[in-house]
Amino acid sequence: MNVDGTVLVTGGSRGIGAATATLLADQGRRVVIVDIAPEPLVATPAILWPAPFDVASESDVVAGVADIEAAHGPITGLVNAAGVFGRMHRIGRVRMEQWDREINIDLRGTFLVARSVGERMARRRNGAIVNVASIAGMTSGPIHAYTAAKAGVIQITQTLAADWGRSGVRVNAVSPGFTRTAALEAAIASGALSKDLLARPTALNRLVEPMEVAQAIAWLLSPASSGVTGINLPVDAGFIAGSTWAAYGGLPETPEV
Ligand SMILES: NC(=O)c1ccc[n+]([C@@H]2O[C@H](COP(=O)([O-])OP(=O)(O)OC[C@H]3O[C@@H](n4cnc5c(N)ncnc54)[C@H](O)[C@@H]3O)[C@@H](O)[C@H]2O)c1
Questions:
Q1: For residue range 130-165, what is the model confidence (pLDDT) as tens digits?
Q2: How far is the CA of 83 from the centre of ligand 1 (A)?
Q3: 248 is catalytic
Q4: Which of 41, 106, 111, 228 sees the fewest Cβ atoms within 10 Å?
């Protein structure tokens, strides 16, 4: 694996995808971003693919990947960051159209893009893919299709890694905790989520920054992680480590003296 070639970032116009595209472009990679609502990134050399690219549409993905390689050369890195959040509901109120939308974009879309790009990488025997899953895929919560989709992303990451390993393609996932994107800030501002309730279970007592997720993704794409494939790396400020401590009275606030 080398750092030549193009990195494709889905969902690159906003949030974690935008932070990742910015970091990789600043590190000197040639980065192309695609999005269903394409918007350029300011002050970075990342290239915007101007046509809307819906990861859940097989024709958009298959044609889009071919056109991007024709315009910008072989894709050697892929970041599957496009996604939609789950709606919070009791089970009886889950609408199946919403279920289908979350599964289609978050799970089926991740598979479609990974397959379209990964088969090309496998033929060239060179590539690294990072799928953005979520701690929601490792825990439970009232976001039913989303948790199932993200658990599926963690699972297909292993399957793709095993399938393409002998073809020189590595596939890994990152699982962000609650990450301070504009979308999450808006949910906090509207009162739908509480910043304190999101931060309190984490060992570090805070939200994750988009650039912290981007740094983990950049490592998994780089030759520095050449021996790593099929893993799911939580970037969660210690949410998984800390979230069971409420049962024991909560996390300690001060050093023991
Ligand atoms: N922010 C968090 O707290 C958090 C936590 C865990 C996992 N994640 C995951 O990280 C990924 C990025 O989320 P984010 O927080 O940056 O959200 P975001 O809304 O800021 O960015 C998501 C981007 O994906 C694009 N997108 C949505 N549907 C698409 C489609 N069908 N095709 C192409 N692009 C599409 C959006 O236009 C947007 O630019 C998602 O998979 C999300 O589930 C986010």
A1: 999 999 999 999 999 999 999 999 999 999 999 999
A2: 4
A3: no
A4: 228
- In the set 146, 164, 178, 239, the catalytic residue is 146
Complete domains list, the chain, with CATH: 6-177+209-241 (3.40.50.720)
Pocket of ligand 1 from Cβ distances under 6 Å? 10-11, 13-17, 35-37, 53-56, 81-84, 105-106, 109, 132, 134, 176, 178-179, 181-184
Closest residue by Cα to residue 235 from 19, 3, 44, 22: 19
CA–CA distance, 143 with 140 (Å, rounded to integer)? 8
pTM (two decimals) = 0.98
